[in-house]
Design brief:
alpha/beta; binds fe (ii) ion; two-stranded parallel sheet; about 290 residues; Phenylalanine Hydroxylase
Length: about 290
């Protein structure tokens, strides 16, 4: 199954002047009334299969967020309705964008507690093919976690950190932290390993691969290790990093990355599938999925 995940890595990649909206922050109206019956059906198909998979696989906070928000199978959510609930809980809102937006626009939204979500939905023949983040990835995958106060703070801090990393030329290192937490993070909760990353939560095949498949490594999250680790943009991850609790992310939101960037700069980088002597390995992957042939 071909997968195209570059876009998830690059929420902020400039989409080109051809689609540049009129507003400086790239927001557009969601245009909810313009969704077709087929669009809502695609949403339902995606929603239903994830709803069956996620109990026992998504972390408690994700499932709670799903219950708390006006997200249901029958229709693509209205961003205004989502924002009404989110604002009261964590001060976040969901704003519509046409797709990818430039880095600084993306970070500025996050720093101001606005989550930019693609307003379009993938075609019915592309259920597992994502060229850029659509409304299912962005809303189903990301928004439930924004109900959680720790993730809410963490993502705002990431936006602020992103603006700073741009100035420092360290965006690649920071992006890996986002990638291995917000997009592809796993959590060790009392009753077992769970997912909280949006890239997993919104993907039928990666939900089971990340948790159940013997192929990938599952390694305890370590900030500097992650900052030095490359990731897959064209396939499932070779390594998933596991946090012990969301307090770990809150710590990340509070620390000064400046000295870390200095420390990491010039150090060797690690390939996506590397396992290191200092790693706390929860599962040593067979690597089978990524072996050629
Ligand atoms: Fe995402």
């Amino acid at each position: 199954m071909k997968r195209q995940l570059d876009a998830l890595a690059k929420h902020g990649l400039a989409a080109g002047d051809a689609v540049r909206p009129q507003r400086a922050d790239w927001t557009i109206d969601q245009g909810w009334a313009d969704y077709t019956a087929a669009d809502h059906t695609t949403w339902r198909t995606l929603f239903e299969r994830q709803r069956r998979l996620l109990p026992g696989r998504a972390c408690d906070e994700f499932l709670q967020g799903m219950r708390d928000l006006p997200i249901a199978a029958d229709r693509i959510p209205d961003f205004l309705e989502l924002s009404d609930v989110l604002k009261g809980r964590t001060g976040w809102q969901v704003v519509a964008v046409p797709g990818l937006v430039p880095d600084e626009v993306f970070f500025d939204h996050l720093a101001n507690r606005r989550f930019p979500a693609g307003n379009f939905i993938r075609r019915p023949d592309q259920l597992d093919y994502l060229e850029e983040p659509d409304v299912f990835h962005d809303v189903f995958g990301h928004v439930p976690m924004l109900v959680n106060p720790v993730i809410a703070d963490y993502l705002q801090a990431y936006g602020e950190g992103g603006l700073r990393a741009q100035r420092l030329g360290t965006l690649a290192q920071l992006a890996r932290v986002y990638w291995y937490t917000i997009e592809f993070g796993l959590l060790r909760q009392a009753d077992g390993l769970r997912l909280y990353g949006a890239g997993i939560a919104s993907s039928f095949s990666e939900t089971t691969f990340s948790l159940d498949d013997p192929s990938p490594n599952r390694v305890r999250f370590d900030l500097e290790r992650v900052m030095r680790t490359q990731y897959r943009i064209d396939d499932f991850q070779e390594t998933y990093f596991v946090i012990d609790g969301f307090e770990q992310l809150l710590e990340l939101a509070r620390i000064d990355f400046g000295p870390l960037y200095d420390h990491v700069r010039g150090q060797p980088e690690f390939a996506p599938g590397d396992v290191l002597p200092d790693d706390t390995v929860l599962h040593r992957g067979t690597g089978r999925h990524h072996q050629p042939g």
